[in-house]
Amino acid sequence: MRAQLAGPSVRFHARRRLSTTPSRRAPSHAEAEAARLKQAEEYCRALTRGTDHPAFLTSYFYPGVARPAFYALHAFHAEIAQVRRKVSKEILGEMRYTWWRDAVKSIIAGHPPSHPVCLSLSLAHTLHHLQPYHLTRLITAYSHPLPPCPDLADLRTFAQSTRASLMYLCLGILPPLPMRDGAKGEDRVAHAASHVGQAVGLAGVLRSAGAGEGPMGRSWQGGEELWRDRVKEVASAVREEVGRAREVLGGEVGREKMPVFLSAVPALVYVDRLEKAGGDPRVAKARGEDWRTSWRVWRAWRSGVF
């Protein structure tokens, strides 16, 4: 009899405990969207770190509010830059470039495709008003391959259309200069950034050559001697472009725009390492990056001199 009375009581208390357990609420639309954007940001950050470590080192010096946009822009550049390496036929590459052109239009219109880079770029455009001209200029530059034996002028034009465009976009996500500097100050900074962009782009060509990729990689048809001469010429041009940027700025870089100019530091470090490797990018690549690059970027930030 006691056992029969105990049974319902136990079941009653069990039901009461279950009924007081809070149910898991489904995330709201805003929460789901925030989670999706966070995942997109992590994707862009990982892609930037994996494909452009020198640029990734400078990201720590961008303001926190600008850092997601920085990763979005560099992830976009990485996606465009590796289109030709990922496709087996030229027509597939052209289709991919067309897709990205349409994606940029959709991003600017406020209807980004469901791609992590596009989602991050859309948020960056909402916050910083990205200039679509530079985004499409990047696509155009990579969709038109360089000649089999590009000269320095060809490589400068390529760097100007790719990396310099990226520098312009990065300037746009940083705080404006103080009012006392005015429009002339902004123009001077943009002019200097174009030289840094060319330096970074030319250094990138040399890095790619060390891996047998890019315009001076496996497609090179000018022979070993001409290739080595061109490497020396491009390495000298890297230093020259950084020097021009310093001249334009007159040795003064406002803290607001300094993160963009930190990109010159890894390029100079690489050229120094290339010189120690006898001017051979293949040897310089084998030696890899070292702690000095990070230290010199930090020192440039502290001193205000790149």
TrEMBL record:
The record's listing under InterPro entries reads: Isoprenoid_synthase_dom_sf, Squ/phyt_synthse
Note one Pfam family from the annotation.
Answer: SQS_PSY
Q: What is the protein name stated in its UniProt record?
A: Terpenoid synthase
| Organism (species) | Calocera viscosa (strain TUFC12733)
